[in-house]
């Protein structure tokens, strides 16, 4: 039988399929790359500058552990200024520069995650975590490659409202920044409050910075709210609102979501303005960094940080913002390891499949116990309370899984 080029290729393909081998094999990469956009300048530069060292620490720890199946990992970070278009340009540059070696990316905001979503197709797709807990991102049907490193903002409201109900509260105020970040859980929170029999007596929108504190506090006083949930703030406004309410003599119990739960901010406010944050509560997806008993991953972080960041704030303490980033990176690394060790190429689809398969995972410190990825999020958290005397946030509730 005459062997033509066509029959040779067809015969070879059939033999390859019969042996269960792939017809195309990518060359083994010399390294895996994870890119990132961080707000090193702009309105959230404080958070970005505290987060940036996490990438250095993560790279060292992962490579000291043998990398991914013996292949080292490298992180590439760029400044976004907290401008989604800048972050998108950074992502596109990373794709062009790193090619197939770029297996995952870390974004700096909900705005970027929404802007980049239509781009995540074909060769442009990559597994993508971020600083965002935006509720709409927790949908693998529409955002298969994007994930949350914890509970969505809606989940966080669920946890806080359940805590209010458990404490016997009957009404609540929602105070939020006039941003997409701030508005995210408000409608859901109203529905959940109604289900729990809690009356929402005030919905107050503020500027994310430079808010008119006296006006907002006056409206809060007129509402008679027992509780107030603050949403959509990072380094400013939320302490000013609480301080203004205390000067006004309001007994309202204030509660915050993740970005309003940083010890460094609470400590600084206390040192500069007095103990008015005492008793402030909020939802936190993770254990704080000083809660390292039975947390081997945290202990490993602490040992490395003491050496790598001597003389800096990260020497003995990792901010909540840093922990959130580290958790997002750990999730990406978990999906990458599971994919590679399972004998599959780290394509976006294979990584997304591994991500959705994370079940009963012991993270070694971040959460209170084994967690699972459901709808591309980990819907777990608990309520903590700040003490101005100890300077610590300590838990006041059990862990909730939403």
Gist?
The chain is 40% helix and 16% strand.
Topology:
Elements lengths: L4 H14 L13 E7 L6 H20 L8 E7 L4 H15 L3 E6 L2 H7 L10 E4 L22 H14 L4 E7 L2 H4 L2 H11 L2 E8 L6 H11 L3 E5 L6 H10 L5 E4 L6 H11 L7 E4 L11 H13 L11 H22 L6 H9 L23 E8 L4 E4 L4 E2 L1
Parallel strand pairs: 1-2, 1-3, 3-4, 5-6, 5-7, 7-8, 8-9
Antiparallel strand pairs: 9-10, 10-11, 10-12
Q: How would you portray this structure in words?
A:
Residues 33-376 form the Leucine-binding protein domain. The chain folds into 2 domains: 32-151 and 291-371, Rossmann fold (3-Layer(aba) Sandwich); 153-284 and 383-401, 3-Layer(aba) Sandwich (Rossmann fold). The chain contains 13 helices and 12 strands. Helix content is 40%, strand content 16%. With 402 residues, the chain is an alpha/beta fold. Residues 1-24 have low confidence and may be disordered. Strands 5, 6, 7, 8, 9, 10, 11 and 12 form an 8-stranded mixed sheet that branches. Helix 2 (45-64) packs parallel to helix 12 (320-341) and helix 12 (320-341) crosses helix 13 (348-356).
* Oligomeric category: single chain
CATH superfamily of the largest domain: Response regulator
CATH topology of the largest domain: Rossmann fold
**Helix segment count?**
13
Number of individual domains: 2
Helix content: 40-55%
How far is it from the N-terminal to the C-terminal residue, by CA? 66 Å
